[in-house]
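FORM 12-B: Structure-to-Sequence Request
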């Protein structure tokens, strides 16, 4: 089964080499792995939460699109699109908003951090906080759920958002009695490369210590020559450990090149020479990509056309049909079809018990039975195939008496009485259909 992997990229400013090594390069490499269908999108709607400068929004979106394409993203093999080209995402955001618990959003890290800051500054809790910041996780859930993504590779700071997406998706599925949404899993890359910046701290825009990914060679050289080093003179051995210069070199070098550079440090290479070598190494790794980037930036209409084309395909294939089903589910329906059957069916459905089949990380197949309020009644053991699980569900659906159920209790965990009642309710509903 192919796994759907979805990655949202918030356009914010010009990317730096830390972004490239830590996020862009590994994500593109992963998108080339077999058995994955990759979705990469420019989260331009999210960027409006951080900036109200329209030129900056436009410029960043273009730069980020050109960066990912220049870095080797193949727009015919992956889905590469712009969030705002898919109006169904914003529409879905509303349906999810209406099932999302406000209390859950209150606990979102980004919002809580903003409130904490206000308290520190003796301000009103919500001073200067937009509802957009508060709702950020719901929009993000819509991004993920609309394409039924299985996995979302994220940094640790985003895990909570994926959990919220699961929560909102699950609530919706449960309330409307059908698995409209796949529940996504966060995938954390434990060994993401973090690169030191010019001052030796982590490379980050907020420290103002970055090397822009596509800096023209003279600027690149100047920046590399400004990397802080200790005061050891040429001829004195230098430590590679803790050297920002060395780490930047290493990130762009083969193991053999790195070993040779380490030897040069031990042999007392002068800092000027070392910096020259780093410049040459980084420049040779980036120059082709920079050329591609400059070519793309010179023809923004091509990027525009590409993004629109892919978004339109996604809308036709996935977003429009899904939203049609979702609108129907919530009751935004054709009024002329409002016969007397419509209402009772919906009401009964919402209160019905529900079997759920799913697969766990251990690769085995499980199911559970939930009652009309979503309480867990049965938790099964793991099965080797979905068929095995399905067969037992079929047996259970027939079980009208306690002993039929009793004989299966070694394969499920649950209390007999409420389970029997739930099964009975299911049978009655089936008989009415
Ligand atoms: N919140 C993500 C970030 O700040 C960007 C993002 C928006 C995203 N929607 C997403 C990431 C959906 C993954 C899936 O980096």
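FORM 12-B RESPONSE
SEQUENCE OUT:
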């Amino acid at each position: 089964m192919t796994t759907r992997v979805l990655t949202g990229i918030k356009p914010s400013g010009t990317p730096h080499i830390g972004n490239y090594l830590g996020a862009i390069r590994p994500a593109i490499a992963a998108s080339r792995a077999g058995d994955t269908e990759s979705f990469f999108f420019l989260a331009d709607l999210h960027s409006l939460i951080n900036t109200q400068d329209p030129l900056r929004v436009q410029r960043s979106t273009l730069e980020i699109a050109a960066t990912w394409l220049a870095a080797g993203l193949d727009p015919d093999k992956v889905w590469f699109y712009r969030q705002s080209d898919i109006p169904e995402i914003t529409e879905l955001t509303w349906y999810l908003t209406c099932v999302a618990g406000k209390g859950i959003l209150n606990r979102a890290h980004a919002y809580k951090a903003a409130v904490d800051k206000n308290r520190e500054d003796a301000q009103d809790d919500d001073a200067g906080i937009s509802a957009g910041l508060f709702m950020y996780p719901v929009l993000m859930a819509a991004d993920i759920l609309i394409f039924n993504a299985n996995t979302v590779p994220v940094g640790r700071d985003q895990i909570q958002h994926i959990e919220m997406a699961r929560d909102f998706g699950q609530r919706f599925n449960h309330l409307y009695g059908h698995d409209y949404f796949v529940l996504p899993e966060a995938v954390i890359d434990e060994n993401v490369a973090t690169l030191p910046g010019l001052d030796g701290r982590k490379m980050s825009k907020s420290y103002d210590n970055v090397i822009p990914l596509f800096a023209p060679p003279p600027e690149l050289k100047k920046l590399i020559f400004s990397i802080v080093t200790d005061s050891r003179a040429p001829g004195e051995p230098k430590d590679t450990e803790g050297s920002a210069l060395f780490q930047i070199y290493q990130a762009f070098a083969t193991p053999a090149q790195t070993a040779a550079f380490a030897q040069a440090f031990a042999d007392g290479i002068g800092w000027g020479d070392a910096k020259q070598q780093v410049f040459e190494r980084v420049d040779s790794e980036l120059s082709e990509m920079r050329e591609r980037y400059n070519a793309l930036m010179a023809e923004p209409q091509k990027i525009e056309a590409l993004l629109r084309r892919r978004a339109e395909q996604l809308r036709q294939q996935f977003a429009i049909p899904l939203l049609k089903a979702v609108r129907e589910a919530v009751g935004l329906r054709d009024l002329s079809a409002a016969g007397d059957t419509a209402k009772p069916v919906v009401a009964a459905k919402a209160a019905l018990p529900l079997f759920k089949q799913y697969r766990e990380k251990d690769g085995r197949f499980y199911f559970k039975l939930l009652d009309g309020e979503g309480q867990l009644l049965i938790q099964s053991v793991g099965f080797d195939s979905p068929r095995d699980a399905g067969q037992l569900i079929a047996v259970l659906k027939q079980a009208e008496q306690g002993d039929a159920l009793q004989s299966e209790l070694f394969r499920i965990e649950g209390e007999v009485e409420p389970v029997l009642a739930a099964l009975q309710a299911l049978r009655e509903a089936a008989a009415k259909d």
